[in-house]
Amino acid sequence: MNIDRRTMLKMMGGLMATPFLDLFESQGIKALAEKKGISFGSSVGNELYRNAKFRRFVLHHCKVLTPENQLKWKAIVQANQSYNFRAADRLYDFCRFNHLEMRGHALIFEKSMTNWIASCGCDVEKQIHKHIKTLVARYENVTSWDLFNEISEDDGVGGWLRKDALSQRMGINYVKGFTEMANRIGAGKEWVVNEWVGPYKDRFFRKKRKAVLNMLEHMREKDIAIPTLGIQSHLKFSQEDYDQKDWLAFCKNCKDLGFQVKITELDVSHGAKKQLNNDASYVAKNLQRYLEDTLSFANVNSLVCWGLVDAYSYSMSDDLWEQVNFGSAPFASDYSHDILGHAIVSALNNCPAYEGISASL
Q: How many other β-carbons are positioned within 10 Å of the β-carbon of residue 270?
């Protein structure tokens, strides 16, 4: 039987009450999130400027925007070490004009820097210092920066640091060095280490969670003044895939170590083809459980989706989406609520308010 998304959502059995749906429609997700002290937003690309309907929709629902690629090293740094700020400036100006926050994503992302590191023939540490100083000064209204993006791995240096061109050249101490430099030039900014880590039962993700905790423990032990962990949350839920007990323990450990959390890149994918699950109600249930569990520790201050509408989400380019009854983003391509949107709003309705962190950095 082929059913449309709206009919499917009605069949889920009370995922969201009608009054809360009315708030969802009238005030946007940002207003619901603000009631809990959480900033809601989305990543955006060029569709923001091309499509007036989409732009109005973003403004209705979002308080914070994340550039998809516009601030990454590869997009800004030219072969001659000069900068191309055009795309990043455009989004920064849009956010300022519309009284939105812009997240700084990302200053140090080795996967975006690999070719540059190999070919620059320069003092890498000095150039990265210059890069951080230049961007933080240029985008002075950006208060939250992903200082590091995806630096952990389970078999890494010290049990956590990814073995890549940057760590091979500079060693484990580069994390402390760049953090100290960032805090000197950007006092009062929120520095984030943004990690791809999932809540799944398989051995890979259990080891990945352990690596992230090793990283956070190292930061506290070495007085590395990063207050916030970004949990990307590119989610996939195959049957019996959510490791709720271990995920709750992971979130508790993050809080106990004194870290606040941002959900930075939330979307839902189908996973591998062999894991394809067309049961939208099952996926919706696990999405809601994941969000409610993560938000339950009252240390999450931001929830940002990696795409707001399916039609403009990078994940939806995969033809496997034709085989499932749900989309990647909170809203379907026709701007109706999709299962992720319902899970977000229901989780925000049920979660405690953000309380901050007590650890001194």
A: 21
At 20-35, the pLDDT tens digits run 566 667 789 999 999 9
**Span 237-254, mean pLDDT?**
90
Say what the pTM is: 0.92
The candidate with the shortest Cα–Cα distance to 63, out of 42, 45, 49, 47, is 42
List the structure tokens of 155: 């078999």
- Enumerate residues 6+ apart whose C-beta is below 8 A from 359: 220, 257, 258, 259
User: Which residue, 28, 1, 58, 6, is CA-closest to 326?
Assistant: 6
Beta-bridged to residue 101, according to DSSP, are 64
Can you give the residue ranges of every domain in the chain? Answer: 5-350
CATH superfamily of 5-350: Glycosidases (3.20.20.80)
Mean pLDDT of the region 271-278: 47
- Coil, strand or helix: which one is 229? strand
- Provide the token pair at 114: 């690999």
| CA quadruple 48, 75, 331, 288: dihedral, nearest 10 | -150
Say yes or no to pLDDT of 361 above 80: no
What is the four-CA torsion angle of 308, 309, 313, 318, rounded to 10 degrees? Answer: 140
Alpha-carbon dihedral of residues 58, 63, 69, 73, nearest 10 degrees?
Answer: 160
> Which residue type, as a one-letter code, is found at position 212?
V
Quickly state the pLDDT bin for 356 (edges 50, 70, 90).
confident
